[in-house]
Design brief:
Blueprint (H helix, E strand, L loop, with lengths): L4 H16 L6 E6 L2 E6 L2 E7 L2 E5 L2 H8 L5 E2 L12 E3 L2 H5 L1 H21 L3
Antiparallel strand pairs: 1-2, 2-3, 3-4, 4-6, 5-6
Length: 120
Amino acid sequence: MNLPSGLALLRRELEDAATHLGRPHELRFRPMFGGLMAYLDEKPCAWLTPAGLALKLAPADQTALLRLEGTARLVAKPGAAPSRHYIVLPAALGRDTVQLARWLAKSAAGAARSARRNAP
């Protein structure tokens, strides 16, 4: 797949974060609406869009992340409501592998909690 340079950069940043967590082989990407959906342990964790890298987070983690300057709720397309789950990170946070890895771990933990709640 030939990615636009901006998406390729976001993908590398997320791959670096997964490697920092010791989980590079659990990270997968699939094309989604002009971007890439990232899955960690087969659960959606991030959406890479022209607007930036957006992490899927539990509500409590969203509140903490939204306190950081430059974060915002993802608006998937013009006129759409802001996402209830995905928070766009400032570019500087994506370049900080250690910090991005911490937030990626929170995303993965939230997905695991959600899966357990929805299990039969």
